[in-house]
Amino acid sequence: MSDTPGKQQNTAAFYGQAVASFAVAMAATAIGIYQLSADAWVRGFLAVAVLYLVTSAFTLAKVIRDRQEGAGAAPAYTPFEKH
């Protein structure tokens, strides 16, 4: 096993599985909301809530990835740290 630093690459199968999983989850949720026996405004509210949840999850994943990629760079500024 090598300890050389480098950027890890995901395999095409892992990428495909992640995309397929996301597509199935979104489709199942959309079908579930559509088939729900409730007023249209309730289904609309749930649809908007799901879209908000998805966009915030993508943003959180990006922030975490950016923080991890920047961990080897210069230390972050911490205004309350004593020197």
Question: Main attributes?
Answer:
0% strand, 83 residues, YiaAB, mainly alpha, transmembrane, single chain, 2 helices
Outline the fold blueprint:
Elements: H1 12-35, H2 40-69
Task: Explain what this protein looks like in three dimensions.
With 83 residues, the chain is mainly alpha-helical. The protein is 65% helix and 0% strand. The protein contains 2 helices and no strands. The longest helix is centred in the middle third of the chain and has 30 residues, at 40-69. The chain is flat, with a radius of gyration of 20 Å. The mean pLDDT is 87. Keywords: Membrane, Transmembrane, Transmembrane helix. It comes from Streptomyces purpurascens.
Q: End-to-end span in angstroms? A: 39 Å
Total count of strands: 0
Return Rg in Å: 20 Å
Shape descriptor: flat
Order of helices and strands: HH
Strand content: under 5%
The percentage helix is 55-70%
Biggest β-sheet: count, sense, barrel? Answer: none
Summed over residues and divided by their number, the pLDDT gives a mean of 87
Helix/strand class:
mainly alpha
Summarize the structure in short.
With 83 residues, the chain is mainly α.
